Amino acid sequence: MAFLMKFCTLIVNVLCLPLHLIEAVGLYEIYKRVFPFCLYRFSKTYNKKMYDKKKELFRSLPEFNKPGGQLTILEIGCGTGANFEFYPPGCKVICTDPNPHFQKYLKKNIGENDHLTFERFVVASGEDMGSVESESVDVVVCTLVLCSVNNITQTLREARRILRPGGAFFFLEHVVADPSTWAYFFQHVLQPPWYYFGDGCEVTRETWKHVEAAGFSELKLRHIEAPLMFIIKPHIMGYAVK
């Protein structure tokens, strides 16, 4: 099984040589302008299928609001703002994303969710959010982002830095499947083209191990099977308290 997987992955990598070359010469940057439109369409479908899970996850957000204060949320890799509808009324939202081309769709979702106070959009990667003050937010949200950051450990370190003591890191991420399944096999075989079409997305990450090792004082994490295509069916969801 392992040999077959490696052999098939090699074949797919060879077939993806044109994509590798496109990235090598810098032409892949063109796709980054198109990707926000693709993600906008995908997010609509994802939210419909994951509506109950997102409602369940974000139901706990108000618990981390300081008495008499305004709940402040920072979202890493906000994309098109697909989570806005699940945030409680009156909260303040700070958005970060390394791709500035998301702003068009972000503004659209801001206009459709006037129950929120939008503070600002910061063009920054999850690994380097130095423009955001330490211990300045109540909640950090990260959904479908840790699959594509360059360094999960550093991203989680930044999330902890930005959170106030007692604040929480909320996450919903697709992860690698159980090694005994065909889903695991095809995740590895199809990873090369998926990386390009998903703008750096990797479906073979054991993200839960990074969250468990991030040094949070309390962690509520569970594995779920999302009602999605097999390659992104395994998910983790929950929150961790600083």
TrEMBL record:
Residues 1-24 form the signal peptide. SUPFAM superfamilies: S-adenosyl-L-methionine-dependent methyltransferases. GO terms for molecular function: S-adenosylmethionine-dependent methyltransferase activity. InterPro entries: Methyltransf_11 (IPR013216), SAM-dependent_MTases_sf (IPR029063), Thiol_S-MT (IPR052356). CDD domains: AdoMet_MTases. Keywords: Signal. Gene3D superfamilies: Vaccinia Virus protein VP39 (3.40.50.150). It comes from the Eukaryota. Residues 74-171 form the Methyltransferase type domain. PANTHER family: METHYLTRANSFERASE LIKE 7A, METHYLTRANSFERASE LIKE 7B. This is Thiol methyltransferase 1A. It comes from Sander lucioperca.
